# Entry
Amino acid sequence: MAQIDLSTYQTVFDMIPVGLGIASLEGKLLIYNAAMLAPGGYERADIDSLSSVVELYYEPADRARVLEIARDQGKVDNFRVRFKRKNGEPYWTLMSLRPVQFEGTPGWLASVLDIDIQVRAEEDLSVKMKELEELNKVMVGRELKMAELKEELQKLKSQK
# Structure
């Protein structure tokens, strides 16, 4: 296999449409691509000024939970977690973690996929399904009532 130079890796890292980043064990982002910025509406200066990635989590306790899983299992695959947009609003992601050494520093390689649109569509579908179930109950109830009335009408006709 041919050797690939560092600039090629950098290009791939920057162009991939999935958020990729490496954070130290303490949570300081060491390197990240542009796809990490877009879903939250962040600029590089915003991310560089963070003391820890925990500031990006909508629920800070989720970081502890995902790290516990990573330590127990050695990795995390497709963990559903909400991150915080720059404006403070939450958005849903799928996050995966792998242990890594970056320039001699142990840390976690994270991939973060924005699934907010899909989660909102699932929630909307769930609401619509509940509405449909309620409508179905009403319609079935109506049909049963019609059958009862028809039966009573038949009884009345037969009594004449």
Notes: The domain at 6-114 is CATH 3.30.450.20 (Beta-Lactamase). The mean pLDDT is 90. The first strand starts at residue 19 and ends at 24.
